[in-house]
Amino acid sequence: MSDRSIPSYVPRGGPLQGVRVLELTKVWAGPFAGKLLAFLGAQVIRVESVESLDTTRSMTGKDWDNAPGWQAVNPEKLSVQIDIKKPDGRDLFLKLVKQADIVIENMRPGAMERLGLSYDALRQVKPDIICISMGMYGNEGPLAYQTGYAPLFAALGGVSALVGYEGEPPVGMNIRYGDSTSGTASAFAATVALNHRQRTGEGQFVDISFVEVLSTMISDTIMDYSVNGAIPACDGNRHSNMAPHGAYRCRDDAWIAIAIPSDAAWSALTVAMGDPALGEDATLATLERRQARCADLDARIGAWTADKDANELALALQALGVPAAKSFNSIELTTDADLWADDFYPAVTDLNGEPRTIVGPSWKMSSPAELTRGSPALGHDNDYVLGEILGYSVEERTALTEAGITC
Amino acid sequence: MTALSNIRIVELSGGVAGEYCGKLLSDFGAEVIKVEPPQGSPVRALPPFAGNDRGPDASALFAYLNTNKRSIVLDLESDGGRDALARLVARADVVIDDHAPGWLETVGINPDMVGASHPGLTLCTITPYGRTNAKADVPAEDLTLFHAGGWGYHTPGGVDPAKPPLKGAGRFIVSYEAGMEAALCVSAALFDQHRSGHGRVIDISKQRVMASRLDYVLAQMLVGDMDVTEARGAFDLGGPASIMPCADGFVYLWLSDTRMWWAMHDLMGKPDWMLEFPEDWLQKGCTPERVALSRQYFTQWLKTQNKHEVAAEGQKRGIMVVPINTAPDLMDSPQYQFRQFFTELDHPVVGSASYPTVPYRFSATPAVLAAPAPSLGQHSKAILDSVTQGAAQ
Fold first, then answer.
1. Which CATH number do you get for residue A293?
2. Is the residue at A136 inside a domain?
3. What is the DSSP string of B316-354?
4. How far apart are CA A123 and CA B195, in angstroms?
5. What's the maximum distance between 2 C-alpha atoms anywhere in chain B?
6. Mind telling me how many Å the CA of B311 is from chain A's nearest CA?
7. Is B338 in Cβ contact with A142 (below 8 Å)?
């Protein structure tokens, strides 16, 4: 049972204070867009129902309120239960739209229309509503019927083809890459539409393609094809403007990333390696010459790093002006003192009234939105949304519940 | 007009992250004045180039990142240059910078004071670790931040421990991510600035942007809901999903339940080998042996298939199978053509080329790539004249 004393509405400040967002999303990309808007101060309300739970609530069994995946992506949001598949639920949702600024959805193309919640239907009750429609391939078009998860966005968007060892088939990014990137592009689009509405009073429909979002992460590669017809093969860790450039094994199977963007950094690296002769070798004095001998240099650096402590080595190289970093495993990522000191992992009050550490916003800004609560229990904010926003009396709310519309 | 017309932005960026941030806003109509040093933005020297020209206007990367912007050359090491910058900043809504921490102070902008001196201005800085982080001055590149942000160690998934971690796709994935995060924050800040008159000082850390993209995974690890380990496969899901070769390239095949298993059986012409697997193995018996064996059979069959055809047939049956696309696939994609993802733009040096546009279609105020990237200092005189007139008034 969740802690019902956790208030639904607390003014939190932030640039989007006063903006109300309704979320009809599932899994990660859609909810991440809502999370960013909530972190910027918007009041984000997830409209949910037991009949159509987010899989992040249901995948680990019955305890949908405490489901780990759900709690990860939905802090600072409100939850109201409305079964929008019932006609009366749909009408109730439209009443809520009338009190909202933005609707975000990542249903399959056509699903909103089938529910009677097309953009035109929303616009009839709220002429300046902003509708953010998210999908793998967008809402319409010849391939819009295709669906998938993040690694499919990356494959289709041209990202996966670029990641692989030299001379080998592509292996792609980590399977987790793509959802949060797509959610960020969608949140940005929502704020742009808000700015336009603020100045003109005009809302609009925004149709987002996750596949295209991922293509924008490799735009320079696409430009190279466009201008020169170039189609790059997998090239391991090579870089057209830096050499050496790679990850090198250290003691205890740790790794260090080193990137050499200049002749000066190269010289500094050779000093650190205790091999100034290498630094004075004229055949390695330029980027082009180092690139030509990349494999040889990678082997020499790897032999040098093999018995070193990755963290100490990174610090030593950084002190010499060489871009280097220990490759963070998940232990280091979650315990890095500097990330904690920057309040990147703030504590909020979870649905049981207990403190909970979350991944906070990446940014810091003056006059930020406060972060107060964790991810909501299903229907935690029914009373606030139905009572305070929509003005239903206790009796009316009971009737809605008995009719199976609200929970 | 487009969504951000009438917004005035001064962009001091010299890297991909800051220029991408400016572009995301300029493509929505914001007036972005790009302030460049006499030798030009460092991005002008980065490939790809069109043909053999290596001059300041030949970079296709710069051409992509600076559509719709105007360029003014200012020598910010001179009093005159800094004075002109101060005038530009005085009438701007936003300033974007991606130089190293401390650089802004040298050109007369102090991030800690700007809230008092320019209350109606939003200042957004993009730096490797964030301006206030203990590592603020640590030298960094996208690669080292890909690793410091938690992705490098875990890329690729399903890793062979004998091989090193891989960089992300292309050269600038970290910079694009950070530029997009910056644009989100600036756009949100502008919304409040318009109603309250107060701007914000925004500090974007590339490391934190990358770590925050791990959201679903990282948040669960923080509270012990997922294992926190030294394993390079700590983010992986297991299962047979992977990139597999086919007759004309590669496909990505995702299989996670019995329904997809039988749909695959149907697609492949009902092969007998699939009947020897328990039908619910994907959910209840996903052993490494079965994963390896099924991949072997799938690969044999896929080698006889073309990537676009097998993806279309699979998708019609509800199978999550897609081609591994390359740049020409994107240009030929009927979906990209339908959404007009590419637009032709003529640049005096780069020439006529198809540019990727934006992944969001706006019904009322679409992003428009109206003007090619400016040549170095193309608008210096016009901008200086307008600033001088403003001062005279």
1. 3.30.1540.10
2. yes
3. HTT-EEEE---HHHHHH-HHHHHTT-EEEEEETTTEEEE
4. 24
5. 85
6. 9
7. yes
Alpha-carbon distance A393 to nearest alpha carbon in chain B (angstroms): 34
Report the distance separating Cα B172 and Cα B149, nearest Å: 14
Interface test with A, best of B167, B302, B342 (most A CBs within 10 A): B167
Is the minimum CB–CB distance between B368 and chain A shorter than 8 Å?
Answer: no
Q: Is the ipTM of this complex over 0.90?
A: yes
Same domain, A188 and A272: no
Asked if A33 has any chain B CB less than 8 Å from its own CB, the reply is no
Task: Determine the residue of chain A that is closest to B235 in CA distance.
Answer: A176
Q: Within this chain, do residues A35 and A177 fall inside the same structural domain, yes or no?
A: yes
Distances in whole angstroms, Cα of residue A20 to Cα of each of A41, A159, A356, B140: 9, 34, 25, 39
- Domain total in chain A: 2
Q: Are residues A88 and A131 in the same domain?
A: yes
Residue A94 lies inside a defined structural domain of this protein: yes
Sketch out chain B's domains with CATH numbers. 8-213+338-392 (3.40.50.10540), 242-329 (3.30.1540.10)
- CATH number for the domain spanning A64: value is 3.40.50.10540
Say yes or no: A284 and A347 in one domain: no
The parent domain of residue A83 ranges over 20-217+342-402
In the chain, the amino acid numbered A208 is I
Q: How far from the centroid of its chain's Cα atoms is residue A393's Cα?
A: 38
Reported as a single tens digit per residue, the pLDDT across A92-116 is 999 999 999 999 999 999 999 999 9
Token representation of residue A219: 């735009």
Rounded-to-integer distance, Cα B380 and Cα B248, Å: 50
Give yes or no: residues A279 and A352 share one domain.
Answer: no
Q: Does the distance separating the beta carbons of B331 and A226 come in below 8 Å? A: yes
**Beta strand pairing status for B320-323 and B70-73?**
unpaired
Q: Based on C-alpha coordinates, what's the Rg of chain A? A: 25
Cβ-based neighbours of B261, under 8 Å, separated by 6 or more? B255, B274, B277, B279, B281, B282
User: Residue-wise pLDDT tens for chain A (407 aa)?
Assistant: 467 677 888 889 999 999 999 999 999 999 999 999 999 999 999 999 998 999 999 987 779 999 999 999 999 999 999 999 999 999 999 999 999 999 999 999 999 999 999 999 999 999 999 999 999 999 999 999 998 899 999 999 999 999 999 999 999 999 999 999 999 999 999 999 999 999 999 999 999 999 999 999 999 999 999 999 999 999 999 999 999 999 999 999 999 999 999 999 999 999 999 998 998 999 999 999 999 999 999 999 999 999 999 999 999 999 999 999 999 999 999 999 999 999 999 999 998 999 999 999 999 999 999 999 999 999 999 999 999 999 999 999 999 999 999 87
Structure tokens at A123: 């616009």
Q: What is the pLDDT of residue B393?
A: 45
Question: In whole numbers, what is the pLDDT of chain B averaged over residues?
Answer: 95
A207 plus A79 within the same structural domain: yes
Q: Omega of the bond prior to B374 within 30 degrees of 0, cis?
A: no
Q: Please tell me the distance in Å from B258's CA to the nearest CA on chain A.
A: 16
Please give the sequence-ordered ranges of beta strands (E in DSSP) within A121-203, or none if there are none. Answer: 130-135
- In a domain, residue A11? The reply is no
| Residue A267 is assigned to a structural domain of this protein | yes
In chain A, residues with a C-beta closer than 8 Å to the C-beta of B351 are 227
Query: Tell me, what DSSP letter sits at residue A373?
Result: B
Would you state the pLDDT for residue A126?
A: 98
DSSP A385: I
Same domain, A109 and A139: yes
Residues A311 and A365 in one domain: no
Q: What DSSP character marks residue A383?
A: I
